[in-house]
Amino acid sequence: QVQLQESGPGLVKPSQTLSLTCTISGGSITTSYYAWSWIRQPPGKGLEWMGAINNAGSTYYSPSLKSRTSISRDTSKNQFSLHLTSVTPEDTAVYYCAAVFGSWGQGTQVTVSS
Questions:
Q1: β-bridge partners, 33
Q2: CB within 8 A of 58, min separation 6: which ones?
Q3: In the chain, which ranges are E strands?
Q4: Which pLDDT belongs to residue 52?
Q5: Which pLDDT score is estimated for 31?
Q6: Which pLDDT does position 79 carry in this prediction?
Q7: What's the CA gap between 84 and 101, in Å, rounded?
Q8: Which long-range contacts (CB under 8 A, 24 or more apart) does 39-47 make?
Q9: pLDDT at 32
């Protein structure tokens, strides 16, 4: 069974870059699923898809976040990462990594505050 675990800082200052890593276990980032996503949920709001990377390394981004988001992967570590630049308090959310049509991580709270 594929499992995912998010990791990264829980507190980021405004204007800085938010960086999170998702570690995949029980499967391969290149073969287990077609693609892997980052999704977030701000407090009191619904889920927001941020972007994805497929098993060939191609990336796809939400139009609303594309200018600030990048997703990369390290196949040797079976990980993929999210980088969100120029964060504001509106980027405060629980961030999830997920296999497309598959498992989700438990989520990690990220707060943007000075």
A1: none
A2: none
A3: 3-7, 11-12, 18-25, 35-41, 48-54, 59-61, 69-74, 79-84, 93-99, 108-112
A4: 98
A5: 84
A6: 97
A7: 24
A8: 39/95, 39/96, 39/97, 39/98, 39/104, 40/93, 40/94, 40/95, 40/96, 41/93, 41/94, 41/96, 41/107, 42/90, 42/92, 42/93, 43/92, 43/93
A9: 84
Q: Where does residue 25 rank: exposed (0-12), middle (13-18), buried (19+ CB within 10 A)?
A: exposed
- What per-residue confidence (pLDDT) applies to 41? 98
By the 8 A CB rule, do 71 and 59 touch? Answer: yes
Q: With a cut of 50, list the residues of the chain below it in pLDDT.
A: none
d(CA 89, CA 97): 21
Which residues contact residue 76 at a Cβ distance below 8 angstroms, ignoring those fewer than 6 apart?
A: none
